[in-house]
């Protein structure tokens, strides 16, 4: 009798320590293997942005056996005020739950409760609840813009390179736009997934010669709080050689067979620039 009690107490201690307990493998936005009531830091996100929590539906049972597709649904069981969530579809692989931060969320740290469910306890796994922590901040991306002074001939488009380093956990689109150019009102929506660096070409265009000072802005398509602005000087010249120089940074609108001519025209513009300056 005493031996049986000792074995029972030892087994209970193992479960308390999480040894042999069932677990859930988190696949995104971070990687972690969690037991019930454990917590994990998911990352940073901006007010109004959305992010996804991904998990592996395969599981390990209480007795240590592998259970194929043992977890069937991932859903939120507690959220901060004003936040919303969409549970993963039943039997999705991997399970993918969407969380949307309140657009009025103050900056700071928040906790959400997430539950992985074995529907009708078919595999004997029950439910597993864990807690995710996120940091709400506008500092979720870095941007570099080049050049800050761009030249073109009148009527010739030129490109500005915009590099977005998405350090947050949201995959929401970004918008690139310009303000202050009389003849140009163009917004470009781009995708830079979380934890990636991507470069995009943003075109500018003016018909009349002159010097145009404008602002280039990059912001989250879901929150203007997440925004960075850069002052740009756009020099538009009517000289043909400036047109040639602009070709090197412009937008290819003609067939590929004209590329050698473009290269030659760009070289002429570059040589002229060296001589003139």
What features would you highlight for this structure?
disordered N terminus; elongated; Immunoglobulin-like; mainly beta; 19 strands; 5-stranded mixed beta sheet; about 280 residues
Topology:
Elements: H1 2-16, E1 24-28, E2 32-34, E3 39-45, E4 50-55, E5 59-60, E6 66-67, E7 73-78, E8 84-86, E9 95-100, E10 108-117, E11 127-136, E12 141-146, E13 149-153, E14 158-166, E15 174-179, E16 187-190, E17 196-204, E18 210-220, E19 223-237, H2 240-247, H3 259-276
Helix pairs in contact: 2-3
Provide a brief overview of the structure:
The protein is mainly beta.
Report on the structure:
With 277 residues, this protein is mainly beta. The chain has two domains: 20-136, Immunoglobulin-like, CATH 2.60.40.10; 141-237, Immunoglobulins (Immunoglobulin-like). It contains three helices and 19 strands. A five-stranded antiparallel sheet has the order 2-1-4-9-8, with no helix packed on it. A five-stranded mixed sheet has the order 13-19-18-15-16. A four-stranded mixed sheet has the order 3-11-10-7, with no helix packed on it. The termini are far apart.
């Amino acid at each position: 009798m005493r031996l049986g009690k000792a074995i029972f107490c030892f087994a209970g201690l193992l479960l308390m320590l999480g040894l042999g307990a069932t677990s859930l493998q988190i696949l995104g936005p971070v990687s972690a293997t969690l037991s019930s009531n454990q917590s994990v830091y998911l990352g940073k996100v901006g007010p109004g942005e959305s992010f996804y929590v991904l998990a592996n539906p395969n599981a390990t049972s209480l007795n240590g056996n592998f259970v194929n597709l043992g977890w069937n649904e991932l859903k939120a069981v507690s959220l901060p005020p004003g936040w919303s969530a969409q549970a993963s579809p039943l039997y999705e692989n991997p399970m993918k739950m969407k969380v949307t931060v309140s657009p009025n969320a103050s900056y700071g740290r928040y906790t959400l409760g997430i539950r992985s469910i074995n529907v009708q306890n078919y595999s004997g796994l029950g439910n597993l609840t864990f807690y995710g922590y996120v940091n709400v901040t506008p500092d979720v991306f870095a941007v570099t813009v080049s050049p800050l002074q761009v030249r073109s001939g009148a009527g010739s488009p030129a490109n500005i390179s915009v590099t977005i380093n998405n350090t947050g956990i949201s995959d929401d689109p970004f918008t690139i736009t310009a303000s202050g150019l009389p003849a140009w009102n163009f917004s470009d929506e781009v995708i830079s997934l979380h934890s990636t660096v991507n470069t995009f070409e943003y075109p500018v265009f003016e018909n009349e010669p002159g010097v145009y000072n404008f602002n280039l802005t990059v912001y989250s398509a879901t929150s203007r709080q997440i925004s960075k602005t850069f002052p740009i000087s756009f020099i538009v010249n009517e000289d043909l050689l400036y047109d040639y120089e602009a070709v090197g940074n412009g937008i290819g609108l003609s067939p590929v067979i004209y590329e050698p001519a473009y290269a030659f025209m760009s070289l002429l513009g570059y040589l002229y620039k060296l001589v003139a300056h």
